Amino acid sequence: MGISFTQPRTEYATVHEEDIEDVPMDIPMDLSGFDGPPFEGPPQTEEQRLEAIRKEKEGHLTGGLGQGWTADAVITTTETDLLMAKSPRTARAPSISRRLSTLRSPRLARSSTFRQMAQDEANKRGKIVEVIVEEPKDDEERVMRDLSLMEGSSASMIGFDYMAPTSRGMGKDTVPAKAEVFFPQADWKPFSMRWPYLTALIILSVTLAAAQEYLLQKSMKEPLYKFHSASDLKTWDYFSFKYLPTMIAVSYGILWQVTDFEVKRLEPYFQLSKNEGALAAESINVDYITFFNFLRPLKALRLKHYAVAVSSLATLIAVSLVPTLQSASIKLLPNRADREKNHNGEKMIRLDPIWSRFLSVLLLFIAMFGCVLVWQLQKRKSGLVADVKGIAGIAAMANRSHILMDFKDMDTAQPNAIHKRLKMHRYVLRNSSLAPDPTNPLTAEEKDKYDSDQEKKSENPHPLMLRLIFGIPFVLGMLLFMIGVPIILFQKNANIITDKAPWLLTVLAVGIKLAWGTLETDVRMIEPFYILSLRHASPKVLTLDYTAMAFGWLPIRAFMNGHFLVALVGLGSVLAEILTICASSFGSVSGMDFAKDPNGTGPKRMLLLLFARKGGDKQDGESNSINSGEETFLSFWISFGLSIAILTFLCLVATFVYSRRRHPFLPRQPNTISSVLAFIHQSKMLYDFVGTEKMDNDEMVMRLAGIGKTYGLGWFTGRDGEMHCGIDEEELASNYKHGQDGKKTNMPWNSNWQSFD
């Protein structure tokens, strides 16, 4: 029967009707009812509208917002019942040692056992449980209780609210006690953050490290492959050493990216769901999505977000170093000088011991990081019942508490101002709702903990990679790489680079991939807000969240939604991975060997060479220099053609992005929970989100579609009757134009005209 706070003979201890005293009840009363009956939802009459404006100006939420929680079940018990519930149900009396233990540690029984059992009961029921522990009037037990209280306060409670003393159901033999409320602890996680997926990544990391070491040991005894001409190899053998290793390394990095993105996105909710909650700077005001990749682990360590630190570090190694080291570890022998002297001589594929061992060690480090990540994620609960997607997900979580009032007058505030306002606040995630936690005051150290962050937050309202100051160098860099590839491959003096540093082109391709990933992240983040800025957007936009969409699925979904710019950027990310594979194939290759046409027969001769199985057909007068490397005529030109085509595509798409998204259209970046809350804290559309905190994304889409409203981003009249900037239901007062104050335009009577000439 689960747990119970009872004596062994019954499920719950009861208080007989004749024992109940006539004691006044501490029932809170809503005095606002004297001004008129309370209403839920949008005001329906002019009287309700004026009443809502008055209350909102006074700092009181209306229309069902901020109504808090009501316990779904009330359990009344005594300390004696609680202690007896610790032992199995039996008719035997507690032993003497058990009694002495009870007398020695009454506070431990109440603080540890009681809270754990109550929390388990709330989790089992999936409902809010209010537990009332009545104290016996027995003099001896009262003395022990008083002595325990003198030892100091007990550990922090799991419950969010500390209820006022209650006398509900109080018997003659008991004295009042405080009621505690316990919320069910939800623990939804995406599949990429659950132990099966992470365990598979750990096993894969160890397997790759073992395979790399095995191949190294094998290649030290004898070459992995021997050939005179690369075209003499079987198709699978050639593919196995030329493309397969890089494809595995790139795919391995993608698998880690999927996990890392979810860990970064959901870490604020893990912090908020802790028993003691979290400071604003550690939760709703933290930004990992747009933060610079290589500095993210350091920031996470400073905030003690160890899951983000190990995930980011493992992903950086998997995405950047693993493909690079894999490319460097494959070595073609003999060296180029010897191969050019004897084009048809024997060639061998071996693994470089230094680079190969370095790669194996890094893979084992990643496996260890994976173990730490599993431990971090399994010991903590997310506090979520479903995925938090888009603006609607945050709005639904903010309707129960008074967290919205913390963002008063913060519509167009910059991140520094929001940080300054919220730095003295602690927040919690309880029962799928965000709420302030005034019961757990900040220490002196916590109050000054993040003062230095105020100067570090960017005041620019546009993401980093969408500004021309970074966009122009990025596009120019890709153009230079596109020009540099043929120069390095086809110019004799420059071609020495592929022999001395065969990994260089792979490193540059990985750099382009990482930069493009940052661009994609910024485009993903702002797209719903850009659509809202165009006005009269579908309610589906409120639930749209491209940041939570898996790699590879993004371009397909965006094309289906008609968001072609996002689709092209997502396709660019896929092609950037292919570019890395192609670039890795240019190591130890001389393009000059494949550009010669000794007989001068033009395109016809090129086609014959392209599809010939034997690269050294001397009867046709073909130059044997083609046989001096590890490339075939077909593989080289396919890799080279794909590289140039992909770089051209990336340059064109990047130019398209900067032509359409380079202008700021928001007062600040929507990269934190607090930034989004500041955009919606006075929105009238929040009336439609009352009671939706436990809905999943599909249910939310159906609800908003059924309401049938459209939405926009701009200036609107809020619930308090004042002009605000943010997201609300149509009709808005006007569009948002960066640098212009809509209050002066839409409510000129509120401006101080005496200050104008």
Question: How would you characterize this protein structure?
Answer:
- With 757 residues, this protein is an alpha+beta fold.
- Helix content is 47%, strand content 9%.
- The protein has 25 helices and 14 strands.
- The strands form 4 sheets. Strands 1, 2, 3, 4 and 5 form a 5-stranded mixed β-sheet that branches.
- Strand 12 and strand 13 (723-729) form a beta hairpin.
- Helix 8 (244-272) runs antiparallel to helix 10 (306-329).
- The longest helix is centred in the C-terminal third of the chain and has 30 residues, at 504-533.
- The chain is globular.
- The relative contact order is 0.10.
- The model is unreliable at 1-36, 86-109, 140-172, 598-602, 604-623 and 752-757 (pLDDT under 50).
Write a concise synopsis of the structure shown.
47% of the residues lie in helices and 9% in strands. The chain has 757 residues and is an alpha+beta fold. A hairpin with a 2-residue loop joins strand 10 and strand 11.
Q: What structural keywords apply?
A:
five-stranded mixed β-sheet, 47% helix, 757 residues, alpha+beta
